[in-house]
Write a structure and sequence with these properties.
This is Glutathione peroxidase. This protein is α+β, with helices and mostly antiparallel strands and 182 residues long. The chain is built from five helices and six strands; from the N terminus they run E-E-E-H-E-H-H-H-E-E-H.
């Protein structure tokens, strides 16, 4: 099994097979518009523009599961991303990314790459850890998605080769991306 076995819905409600991305390096990321990590959209767009012509894609999946930080409609999410961050990479349907109601793609991603902790060098790491421990302690159980902007790196064969928590920025992923692009 690989990510190519999954079909997801676009932000416009159309079915999209991830097999359409065969042969490309991917970042699959859960996003939110009202999060302390939302400025990562800017870095994601920079990374996308740098590598998109070299066989690279970013697939963004909005979710409202983390302190209701993505309350908008599909249209509002798309407008927010374009107006505030110039996002041109694909945004998919808002959906759950953790727990029993998580969309199958994210259940698969989690099964392929375990949670290894937050990068404690990030200025928001301690605050994030404290907020989760205080308000959402169950989020720290198992390998589930812990917060918005968890990024999964996928190679050209559809294998999930890396998991990067919100405390790792998209620009910190460029060395790994370049290695996979060859």
């Amino acid at each position: 099994m690989s990510i190519y076995d999954f079909t997801v819905k676009t932000n416009h409600g159309e079915q999209k097979s991830l097999a359409d991305y065969k042969g490309k390096v991917l970042i699959i990321v859960n996003t939110a518009s009202k999060c302390g990590f939302t400025p990562q959209y800017e870095e994601l767009e920079k990374v996308y523009l740098k590598y998109k012509d070299k066989g690279f894609e970013i697939l963004a999946f909005p979710s409202n599961q983390f302190a209701q930080q993505e309350p908008g409609s599909a249209k509002e999410i798309e407008q927010f991303c374009k107006l505030n961050y110039g996002v041109t990479f694909p945004i998919f349907e808002k959906n759950d990314v953790r727990g029993e109601t998580a969309q199958p793609l994210f259940k698969y991603l989690i099964s392929q790459q375990a949670f290894k902790g937050f990068d404690q060098n990030h200025p928001n790491a301690k605050g994030l850890q404290n907020a989760i421990n205080t308000k959402f302690p169950s989020f720290m159980e198992g390998d589930s998605i812990k917060w918005n902007f968890t990024k999964f790196l996928v190679d050209k064969q559809g294998n999930v080769v890396g998991r990067y928590e919100p405390t790792t920025t998209p620009l910190q992923m460029t060395t790994a991306i370049e290695k996979l692009l060859g």
